[in-house]
Each structure stands twice: as structure tokens, then as C-alpha cells.
Specification:
- By secondary structure, this protein is of the alpha/beta class.
- It contains 16 helices and 27 strands.
- The strands form 7 sheets. Strands 18-17-19-20-27-26-25-22-23 form a 9-stranded mixed beta sheet, with helices on both faces.
- α1 packs across α6 (about 235-255).
- The radius of gyration is 26 Å and the shape is globular.
- It starts with a strand and ends in a 6-residue tail after the last helix.
């Protein structure tokens, strides 16, 4: 399977798809005939066709102007923007669901995922990936990926194509980007240098920069023929991408037996069970968090994991589990998918040099669904002896909006949506829409018009910097109608809204907007710390709740999401109440350096401002739709207290 254009601003992939299809359909070259005789190819020209259309229309509208080559100033996937390839294990978006169904139906031994990257370094990347590789990826797949990526690099280099790099930039840890690594297939990522959408760029030799594990100005074993600069066009992008795809197909054709047998052996080892895996996982029945349980079971079953229901209660290691509990036995082909999502991650401590700064993960370092979704899942050392039903079908998740947020008494909600909208705001819209919550998206013009209190009771700002909210895109960077932010008029309107009785909910970076707007005596104690002293690149942490209507329903600790835009607080203001603190030993899963800088620090605040209030989240309450554990906190914050139903 070859997939293109999941990121719609990476426009070369769709063009390469057409070129590749034409070559395979029309050529009589012996190389092509060998591929056709030995390979079944499924090609998806665009994984996000709506976004591709938007980008195309925006590009053509401004072609020939000073704005030629600019990306549209909105999320090209309506909800999740560039995060649409971080959805490969939660399957929330329709595009993901269709693609995963195709992979489950056809079981490709190789998936080639064609992307583009920045334009100032290498011209194209192929695997091997850099460390770490997620520990539940079968070694046979890791080795297969290594040889195939190296073959592709050698093939392009032999054709005279400069700037081919392997074993750099991208790691193999996060399952959100590598579905097939848990389903018997090799996931080959290629990343080709970008232009300005379809417009040619000129890159001087002085502008060329390297990246993780390579220096673009030096010839090394993994980057043997540097590109020295010059013009770089859409035609160059398509040439590199199509050549890479043909190299992959050539390898698959010549090594058909290897790829089929490798797929079989990966599944065979999974069915036999790994020593590092438990015998089974059980999700106990009768848990209060029905949405969390349904969500995890949906993810597992949609990922082709066989999940059973226990027909009666059973005991294991001195504990009794009720009838109806979900059981995942680990002697099955896709057990690795269950293991990586249910177990708690311990990310390795990787440094640039001993005692030096951390090596930055490409994505995040934790993805433990039971922690994120507030669900208990227990690893069993022995397979339960209870009778199990047939594997269940994919369940439907029932999202129920709390009573306090529906009906005529529900608060009137406005969510800020400027022209510099963060992806996480799209994820929040997705979560609100799944629950059927009523809200308005408020653009800059409406905010600046004032009288917000006439139409709204609550304003929500997702994680966005104070400068971005206030000023938006700089004049001259985009057409005039897409520049600017709230400006002083909008800030004054938000200030008046709160002081006259409104509620403002801010998250992570947007906390600085509220702090500045109301002159709160609140600072971020971890801001400015060097990475080797404090570093949390996407991990699950523990927060201890204080008694408050916002935290009602939480008994003690809650698992929260902390990443690059999250923060802690130091408070010196009588208007501000601390209602949540990071735990004394905060990390639950992932990687953290310098946990002592967070331990005991405020994480969730409630500030009284005039007749109204501001709720400040230091962590992200809706991370990529996964943090079901903290959704009630966000709902409580919107409603101002404990919600019923």
C-alpha cells in the first residue's frame, strides 16, 4: 500500500501518485513488468482530499501575487490539521477509519507513507529510523524496514540523486504514526524536501542545515552525497518521490518470498507469545467510566485485536473479576498493538552526550490508553480459565453531554478561532461535536465588536500564545483579511466580559494571555529552564486535586497530559485559588527530566476577577481526543461546577 497527501500542504505526493499509476499502467519496461507480476499494489492518491482541494484553491487564488506559496490560514483537516497522521491508533477521523479498514482487509506486507519535510536540509529521507524503536515492534519488522529503506536510498543515489539521508531525523517510537508495525507489515516513511507548495524555491549553500543525527554539509555513512543548494521545484519533489516508490516496488518484486514469509513469521511469533508480554489483559467489567472503556475496546477491535467477554466471574492472582469483563488473550497475531497501548511506557534517557541535553523525540513519549482514558486494565500472568465468548464486534462509543451543558439552562459558549488557530483547538471542536455540545466559533471581528456578555456566558481559549491571540498573523504575511488578532479592542472586550460576570477558560499557553490581561500575580516556574535540567516531551503526569466545584467528582489523583506547551504556576495573588497540584512524584508514563521542578507546583487555578472568574489549566485537558480522564474537568470548568448526568 502506498499512501499520499495525508498532509495537504505536502502537494508533491498527489502528483507522484498520478505519475506512478501511469507508469505502472502504460510501461513495458522489464522492471515494471516484474513489479506487475509479483506485487499487488493498493495506492491512495490523497488521504485528505478535502484539504487537498482547499490548498489547491488557495494556491491558485494567490498565484502570481506576493502571497504565492502560502498555506491556507486554517486547519486543512477540519478538526485535526497536521495531526491527522497522529490518529493511527485512536481512529477518530473518517479518513483514518477508511484507510485502516483497507489495511485490515488486505494486510499489506509493506506500507509506504509518502510525506514532505522542511526544505533546508536533505532532499529525501528513508529508514532506518533512529532510536528508540517502540519495544513491541517485532525485530523482524525492524530489520526488514532497515534493509528496505537502505535499498531505496542506494537506488536513488545510484541514479545520481543527491541529498539522500537514512538513520536520521525520525524515530520509530510512537504507534500513532506506524499502524502496520503492529500488524505484520513494514512501515516505510519517506520525507522529501518541500518547495513553497507548487512554487520553486532557491536554496543557497549557506542556508542548508542538518537535523537530528546528520549534518547536511558533510558526507557521512548515512548521508553520503550532500546536496549543495540551488533551485528546488515541484518537479524535483515528484521525481524523488516517484523514484523512491519505484525502488520500493522493485525490492518488493525481487524479494516477494522474503516479504510474505516475514509477514507470516511476525504473526507466528505473536501467536506463540513474547516472553515480555503477559498471558492476557483484562479490562474489568462494571467500571464507572463507560466512555473510557468503550473507547479502548473500540480502538482494540478496530485495530483487529480479538477481544472477548467473560461469560462469568473469574479469579486470577487473588482477585475476582465480574462477568462481562473484557479479556484480550495475548496469543494472537496483533497482540503487539494491544500491548503497546495498554502498558505504561518507560521512554529511554537519551542524551546528545553524557550529562548533556536530551535527544528530542520526534513525537511524544507516552501513549498509555488506560491512564489517558481513566480505565483500569490489568496484565495477567496466566490466561484465565473462564469461558470466553466469540471475539466482539467494534462497539459504538456513546458520548453523553453532562446535563449542566445541555438544555435551555446550559451556558452559552464561545470558543476563540483566529487565523492562527492551533491544532489542539480543532481537537477540542471534535470533542465538543462528538458530545453534541452547542458553542459558537468566535473570530476576531466578533471579539473586537464587544458586548460579548450579551451572547455568551463562557469564553474558551485553547493553547495559543498571548502574542498570537493579540496580534495574529503579521501584516504582509498573508492577505489582509487573514492578518491581525484580537487587538486592544478584543482584549478590552474579554476583560469587560469577565469583570461583568463571565467565565474565561484558558489552557496551557493561553494562560499567559489571561495572566497578562488581568495582571495576575502568577508566573511559570519552569519557563526558561535548560532542557538538561527540565524536559517533558509529551508524558502522562499525576495531578492531585484540591476540593473545589471544578474538581468535584475527582477523588485524589488524576492523570493529565503534559507536553511542550504545558506549564506549572507560582501564585502570589489573593484573587487566585490553587485547585490542583502536580504530584510529589509526578510521572506516570513517558519521560521527564527534573521532576523536582514540577513536584507540588500548582497545575490548575481558579481566579476571581470582578464579578466573573478565570479557570487556568497548566496541562492539556483534551490532548488529541485521548485524555478522557480530564474531559470532566474541562466540562466542569465550562459550567463552573459539578455537573450531573
Amino acid at each position: 500500500m502506498i499512501t499520499h497527501n495525508i498532509h495537504s500542504t505536502e502537494v508533491g505526493g498527489g502528483q507522484a501518485a498520478a505519475r506512478l499509476a501511469h507508469e505502472l499502467a502504460s510501461s513495458t519496461d522489464p522492471r515494471v513488468l516484474e513489479i506487475l507480476d509479483n506485487v499487488v499494489l493498493l495506492q491512495i492518491p490523497s488521504l485528505n482530499p478535502d484539504g487537498t482541494q482547499w490548498v489547491n484553491e488557495f494556491y491558485n487564488e494567490y498565484r502570481g501575487t506576493e502571497f504565492e506559496g502560502q498555506a491556507p490560514p486554517w486547519l486543512y483537516q477540519f478538526y485535526v490539521g497536521h495531526d491527522n497522521n497522529r490518529d493511527w491508533f485512536t481512529f477518530y477521523q473518517s479518513e483514518t477509519q477508511h484507510t485502516v479498514r483497507a489495511q485490515n482487509d488486505w494486510h499489506p506486507q509493506i506500507v509506504h507513507d509518502i510525506h514532505q519535510m522542511g526544505g533546508s536540509g536533505a532532499r529525501i529521507f528513508f529508514p532506518p529510523y533512529i532510536d528508540p524503536i517502540e519495544p513491541n515492534v517485532d525485530p523482524g519488522l525492524t530489520a526488514a524496514v532497515n534493509q528496505l529503506g537502505a535499498y531505496m536510498a542506494a537506488e536513488l543515489t545510484s541514479q545520481g540523486k543527491r541529498g539522500v539521508v537514512i538513520n536520521a531525523i525520525y524515530d520509530g517510537f510512537h504507534p500513532g504514526r506506524a499502524y502496520m508495525h503492529y500488524h505484520g507489515g513494514a512501515r516505510i516513511l519517506s520525507e522529501t524536501a518541500s518547495a513553497r507548495l507548487a512554487s520553486t524555491v532557491s536554496v543557497s549553500e549557506e542556508e542548508i542545515r542538518g537535523g537530528r543525527e546528520y549534518e547536511a554539509s558533510e558526507a557521512t555513512w548515512n548521508f553520503p552525497w550532500p546536496w549543495r543548494g540551488g533551485d528546488w521545484s515541484l518537479a524535483d519533489i515528484v521525481e524523488y518521490q516517484a523514484s523512491g516508490a519505484m525502488a520500493l516496488l522493485t525490492n518488493a518484486a525481487k524479494n516477494r518470498r522474503f516479504w510474505l514469509e516475514n509477514f507470516y513469521r511476525v504473526g507466528e511469533r505473536a501467536v506463540a507469545g513474547w516472553d515480555s508480554w503477559p498471558a492476557a489483559w483484562v479490562i474489568p467489567g462494571e467500571q464507572d467510566n463507560v466512555v473510557g472503556v468503550e473507547s479502548i475496546v473500540r480502538i482494540l477491535t478496530m485495530g483487529d485485536v480479538e477481544v472477548h467477554r467473560a461469560g462469568q466471574s473469574f479469579s486470577s492472582s487473588g482477585r475476582t473479576y465480574p462477568a462481562g469483563s473484557y479479556v484480550v488473550t495475548m496469543n494472537q497475531p496483533y497482540a503487539a498493538f494491544a500491548q503497546t497501548l495498554l502498558t505504561e511506557q518507560e521512554y529511554p534517557d537519551l542524551r546528545e552526550f553524557p550529562g548533556g541535553p536530551p535527544k528530542r523525540p520526534y513525537d511524544v513519549t507516552a501513549h498509555t490508553l488506560p491512564l489517558l482514558m481513566d480505565v483500569e486494565a490489568v496484565a495477567l500472568a496466566e490466561r484465565p480459565t473462564v469461558a470466553l465468548g466469540e471475539p466482539i464486534e467494534v462497539p459504538t462509543v456513546t458520548y453523553e453531554l453532562p446535563a449542566g451543558l445541555r438544555g435551555p439552562e446550559a451556558p452559552r459558549i464561545g470558543m476563540y478561532k483566529g487565523w492562527d488557530e492551533p491544532m489542539i483547538a480543532g481537537w477540542t471542536r471534535w470533542m465538543f461535536d462528538r458530545h453534541g455540545m452547542s458553542y459558537d466559533s468566535l473570530h476576531n471581528e466578533r471579539m473586537r465588536a464587544g458586548s460579548l456578555e450579551d451572547d455568551y456566558d463562557v469564553l474558551i481559549f485553547q493553547s495559543q500564545s498571548n502574542e498570537s491571540i493579540t496580534s495574529g498573523n503579521e501584516p504582509g504575511s498573508l492577505p489582509e483579511q487573514f492578518t491581525g488578532g484580537l487587538e486592544e479592542a478584543g482584549r478590552a472586550a474579554v476583560r469587560h466580559f469577565v469583570e461583568s460576570g463571565g467565565r474565561l477558560v484558558v489552557m496551557e499557553e493561553s494562560a499567559e494571555f489571561a495572566i497578562d490581561l488581568f495582571g495576575l500575580g502568577v508566573e511559570n516556574p519552569v519557563e526558561g529552564l535548560a532542557n538538561q535540567d527540565f524536559y517533558v516531551p509529551g508524558s502522562i503526569l499525576r495531578v492531585e486535586m484540591e476540593a473545589d466545584p471544578i474538581t468535584a467528582g475527582y477523588d485524589g489523583d488524576v492523570n493529565v497530559w503534559y507536553w511542550r506547551s504545558s506549564r506549572a504556576f507560582d501564585v502570589d495573588d489573593t484573587r487566585v485559588q490553587v485547585i490542583g497540584r502536580y504530584g510529589s512524584d509526578p510521572v506516570r508514563a513517558g519521560w521527564i527530566l527534573g521532576p523536582e521542578h514540577l513536584a507540588g507546583k500548582p497545575a490548575l487555578l481558579r481566579a476571581r476577577i470582578g464579578e466573573g472568574e478565570v479557570i487556568l489549566f497548566g496541562f492539556q485537558p483534551n490532548y488529541r481526543g485521548q485524555t478522557i480522564s480530564t474531559w470532566p474537568l474541562l466540562f466542569n470548568a465550562i459550567a463552573g461546577g459539578r455537573l450531573v448526568g
